[in-house]
Amino acid sequence: MEDALLLNQTSLVTHFHLVGLSANQKVQMFIFAVFLVFYVLTLIGNTLIVITIIYDHRLHTPMYFFLSNLSFIDICHSTVTVPRMLVDTWSEEKLISFDACATQIFFLHLFACTEIFLLTVMAYDRYVAICKPLQYMTVMNWKVCVILAVGFWSGGTIHSIAMTANTLNLPYCGPDVIDSYFCDAPQVVKLACTDTHIIEILIISNSGLISMACFVVIVVSYAVILVSLRQQFSEGRRKALSTCAAHLTVVTLFLGHCIFIYSRPSTSFPEDKVVSAFFTAVTPLLNPMIYTLRNEDVKNALNKLMGRKEKKEEK
Fold this sequence. Notes:
With 315 residues, the chain is an all-alpha fold. The protein is 77% helix and 3% strand. It has eleven helices and three strands; from the N terminus they run αβααβαααβααααα. It has a three-stranded mixed sheet. It starts with a helix and ends with a helix. The chain crosses the membrane at residues 29-55, 64-86, 106-124, 144-162, 209-229, 241-262, 274-293.
C-alpha cells in the first residue's frame, strides 16, 4: 500500500519549471548571445583539437590521446545543458519534462565525473613523463592507455547511474520549480516531498568526495613533479612547467565548481548560478584555448592541417 502511494506521489510531477538565469528580458537576450558564442566556439575549438590529434601522427601519444578524450567530453558536457538553455531563453514557462530532467542529470554527471577521472589520469601521465622519462613508453603503453580510458568512462557511468537512481527514487508531488537553468541532483532533490537528509549525504559522499579526493591526488602529483623539475635543464623545465600550468588551470576551474556545489548540503547560494554557468559554458571553451595557445605541438599540427586544406582549395 505504501509503495503504491509513493508511486502515485511520484507521478504527480510530470514537468519541472526552470527559473533560468534571469527574469529580465533584456538580460536574457544578452545571456543568449553570450552563451551562443561560447557554445559555438566550444564546438569549433574542441572539434579542431580532436581532428588535429587524429590527423597528425606525431600527436599519437598518450598525452594527446587523453587530450582528445577531454575535448570530446567537453563537447558533450556543454551540449547537455547549453542548447536547452538557449531554447528556453525564448520561452516564458521554461518547462522540462520529468524524463528529460532525469536524462539531463544522467548525462551531466556522466561527462562531469568522467572528466574528473580523466584529469586525474592526465596528472599521472605527466608525473610519469616528467619524473620517469626513460620508463614512460613502457609504463604508459597503448594497452595501459586503453585500460585507463575504459576505467574513467566506466567510473563516470557508475557514478552517474547511482546519482540518477538516488534522485529518481524520491517522491515528487510538488513544488516543481527548479532555481536554475538545468536539472541537477541537488536542485531536484530539494523538491522531493520527503526527508532528503540521507540522499544529500549520499550526494556529498559521492560527488563531493570524488572531487576532493581527485583534487588532492592531482595536487600531490604536481607537487612531486615540481620537486623533480628542479633537477632538470632549463629548456625541459620550461616546457614541462608550461604543460603542467595548463593542466592545473583546467583542474582548478573544473574541480573548483564540483567541490563548491557538491561538498555541501542542498542549500542554494546566490553564487550558484554564476558558478554553474561558468562550469557548463565557459570551462569547456577554456580547455581548447589553454591547451592550444600554450602547446607548440598542437599549434604546429593545427597550422599544418589548415595549410594543407588551403592548398587543396587552391588546387
